[in-house]
Amino acid sequence: MTNNDILKKLRVALHLRNDEIIHILSLVDFKVTASELGALFRKEGHENYKPCGDQLLRNFLNGLIIHMRGPAEDGKKHED
């Protein structure tokens, strides 16, 4: 399973729109445009397909924590 597959499955499971994903990434100061995000959701082999890197997926997951739980208090990190 690729990072693109993981991102697609999370988008569907959490009912996220592209603008919400961009917002989630902005919570951790990771900038991505709508067209860059659209390229991640293309089928592999499509001329505009772009592989999702580890850094983007990691930042999305960190932003998702903030989106779901809210910001950490007093600068502390969230613990699982």
Describe the structure.
- The protein has four helices and no strands.
- With 80 residues, the chain is mainly alpha-helical.
- The chain has one domain (3-71).
- Helix 2 (18-26) crosses helix 4.
- The longest helix has 16 residues, at 54-69.
- InterPro entries: YehS-like.
- This is DUF1456 domain-containing protein.
- Pfam families: DUF1456.
List key phrases describing it.
80 residues, mainly alpha
Put the structure in a nutshell:
Helix content is 54%, strand content 0%. The protein contains four helices and no strands.
Any chance you could write out the topology, listing elements then pairs?
Elements: H1 3-13, H2 18-26, H3 34-40, H4 54-69
Helix pairs in contact: 2-4
